[in-house]
Specification:
Growth Hormone, Chain: A, 2 domains, mainly alpha, about 70% helix
């Protein structure tokens, strides 16, 4: 494996391990200090709350050097984590909440920064594969890190987990510094739109961005919407202990690892939109399979959901990296992260309320929403020429032909065996084309057909079109 892809995958392993271990231990630590389950759950909300500021935080990445900023964020996160060494009792619980917010802030900045750095470190054909490997690395750490973190917490307490988690961002900063980045041309002032709405405008203008982000947002939101229904299916409908939820989480993690390994090849073979549609449809299928009255069906549904969710997410991230101007990558990726992960904060309480209407009804509703979104995106993909393509061609024609076409000779291509017609000087009509060869006597030129010039007539009005054929 080449240097830069290996470094990005190693960074994902380190960040996934540190964040997964600390996220679990933070809730356990608060629960031990305060005895309040609601306060322990609030730590998770602090992690996801900064996602709502993605457009503004992404704009910071567009105005500052990206790699130095990402390195600085990792080092600052390590320093903030070390502040937890002062926690001794319930009076310092606020420090754990502060660190949880810092983790959420670093997630947004580092995710947007990596999305902006990847195109300058990898070729476009490598992006899908590396994004899939990164997803597999992060999901794989979600299987290992919670066990290591919980075991270390039970053995040595929260301070030992803090030291281990604080080392991960430092190692990540070292790997970021080792990346070999291509020198990207500086953006002109006209190419650097200002304001938060500029990122949203780019996201909405490109169909590939718009569709893949919507597919990922719907899939992730419905995964949160069905969380309470999954709990109810396991405990009430199947009569299984709550510890069986750990089996389902492991099954989903295994599916995510497998899905991340193959998603890059699928994107290279088809397109991000097609892979996003497939991922959303797979998650809909998993919701329907969970309605079956067998525990084996819920395990299989967890594996299918673990495959579908990374497909939708990696397709959206790859589309952002390949369809966004370089000067706008920070803002667009931050806006995309907000669009993809923001709705889940509303979907979780809605799902908790909807489960009172019926466990399976909630799962069927989520499946219908996902299938409708996937079918709508697939129908737009297969239906003829899209308006966005026509607008793109009109802008290209208004801007003039590319420089390559401008350098080509004007006029239609010469017939085989004839001599090329020299270009006419400015202000003088072109010379008549010579006859195709001396084998036969010259005949008088036939009159030109209606609507088409004869051999000695002037060049067509749109000579570049003929030259470019």
């Amino acid at each position: 494996m080449r240097r830069n892809p290996a470094l990005f995958i190693a960074i994902s392993l380190l960040s996934g391990f540190g964040s997964s271990a600390m996220s679990l231990v933070a809730g356990i630590w608060i629960l031990d200090l305060t005895g309040s389950a609601s306060l322990a759950a609030l730590a998770g909300l602090c992690v996801y709350a900064p996602v709502l500021g993605g457009p503004w935080l992404g704009g910071l990445l567009d105005r500052a050097p990206r790699r130095p900023l990402v390195i600085a964020v990792n080092l600052a996160l390590s320093i903030v984590l070390l502040s937890l060494l002062t926690v001794r009792g319930p009076g310092q619980t606020w420090l754990i909440f502060l660190v949880a917010c810092a983790y959420g802030l670093s997630y947004v900045l580092i995710d947007a920064g990596e999305t902006a750095l990847l195109p300058s470190a990898l070729s476009p054909t490598e992006l899908g594969g590396v994004n899939g490997w990164r997803s597999s690395a992060q999901e794989g750490m979600k299987l290992v890190a919670p066990l290591v973190g919980a075991g270390l917490y039970a053995w040595r307490g929260g301070h030992a987990v803090v030291l281990l988690s604080a080392a991960m961002p430092v190692l990540g900063a070292v790997l970021y510094a080792a990346l070999r980045l291509k020198r990207m041309p500086p953006a002109r002032p006209a190419d650097r739109p200002r304001g938060v709405r500029a990122g949203l405008a780019v996201l909405l203008a490109q169909r590939a961005l718009r569709v893949t982000v919507v597919l990922a947002a719907v899939s992730i939101a419905m995964s949160g919407f069905t969380t309470a229904a999954n709990y109810a299916i396991v405990t009430r409908e199947l009569g299984l202990p709550t510890t069986f939820l750990g089996v389902l989480l492991s099954a989903q993690g295994a599916g995510s690892v497998v899905g991340g390994l193959v998603v890059g090849r699928l994107i290279a073979r088809w397109s991000p939109v097609t892979v996003g549609v497939a991922g959303t449809a797979l998650f809909a299928v998993s919701c329907l399979v969970r309605c079956l009255p067998w525990w084996s069906g819920t395990v299989a549904a967890s594996v299918v959901a673990g495959i579908g969710l990374p497909w939708a997410l990696v397709a959206a991230v790859t589309a952002v990296q390949t369809h966004t101007p370089t000067a706008m990558l920070g803002r667009v990726s931050g806006t995309a992260n907000t669009a993809m992960f923001g709705p889940v904060a509303l979907a979780i309480p809605l799902g908790s309320a909807a489960v009172h209407l019926g466990d399976r009804l909630t799962l069927i509703a989520a499946a219908v929403i996902c299938l409708a979104t996937a079918v709508g995106a697939a129908h737009r993909t297969r239906s003829g020429e899209r308006p966005s393509a026509r607008r793109w061609r009109r802008r290209r024609s208004a801007a003039g032909p590319p420089e390559v076409l401008r350098d080509l000779p004007s006029g239609p291509p010469a017939a085989p065996g004839s001599r090329p017609t020299p270009a006419a000087p400015p202000g003088r009509p072109p010379r008549a084309a010579s006859a195709p060869g001396p084998a036969t006597p010259r005949r008088p030129a036939r009159p030109a057909r209606r609507g088409r010039p004869g051999p000695a007539g002037p060049a067509p009005p749109d000579s570049r079109r003929g030259a470019g054929r």
